Each structure stands twice: as structure tokens, then as C-alpha cells.
Request: fold
Amino acid sequence: GLLYVSNIWIPFSGFSSVSTFFFAAGCYCQIFEKDPFNISKLVAWVSAVIFVLMLFLIVLCWNRIPINGHLHATLTIFGTILVFKLASLITVGKYSRIYNSLASASFFVFAVHEPYILYLSRVIVNKILPFNNQGIFVIRYFLYAVLTYLICVCIYKLINKLSPKVTKVLVGRGNNDNKI
Reply:
């Protein structure tokens, strides 16, 4: 992690500090049986504070100071911790019903988001937010993903309501009515 944040990396063809860091983090969790979703509230709050601070600094200092890459790497690490914490909150507890509803559409979203739905989302967001500054670029980046996901889930729900058998085939559950 320190090599990734500090950008001290010996360039080898085909290897990047980002992929090496996340591969090593995954190996660590597997070898020492650490659950990446089991993150304490303290670590989550510290990660959230650092994430917001790094996001603010990136928007404020975009291409003005030479440490911008270090800020981005730090943002990526703490953002990943937050994603794992948010995922653990969504999958258990009072939000599990929403998770189960959205999880059933995950393969459909993966299969149909490129190229048309993502392109449509970009066109819509760019029409709503036509400004060109770094803050808007960050907002657009998140809105592309959210709008693409919402459109895909709406299409999935519509197809599922109109023809559940077709939906089962589309998402790989097949037609279980004709068992041998």
C-alpha cells in the first residue's frame, strides 16, 4: 500500500502498482482468513473522513501540485474500504430486501449496460451538467454509473414483469419447468 501511495514502483512490463496492491491485499485476506466485509465502525469513520478530505483536495488541487497522484492513490484505498463497509451494511440488516431485489438483476445489468445504456446515461448526464470543471467531472463520473444501473434495473424489472420466463433465460436461471 505504501508503494502504491508513494508511487515508488520499478516499472515492469505488464505489472502495475495498483493491480499488485489489490492482488496482495486479496492474498492477505485469503491467507489470514480476514473477511474484507468485517470492518469496524472506527475504521469506516476514519476511512470516510480521509476519503472526503482526499476528494476535496483532489478537486481543489487538480493538476496544480505534483502530489496529485498520491492523493488519488489514497482516495482509491480508502474508497475501497468504504465500498466494502457499505456492501456489508446493505447485505445484512434492514437493507437486505433492497440488496436481494437488486442482486437478482446483477447479471442482466452486466450483460446490457454496454454500449447503449452507458452511452445514453452519458448523454443525459452531459446535457444536465454541461459545465467543464474538475468538480463536475467527479460528479459526472458517479452519475454515469448510478444512472446506467438504474436504467438497466428498470429494464430488467419491466421485462421480468412482462415475461418472467424470458427474464429467467436472460439471466441464466433457465426454465426449470421441464426437469427430466
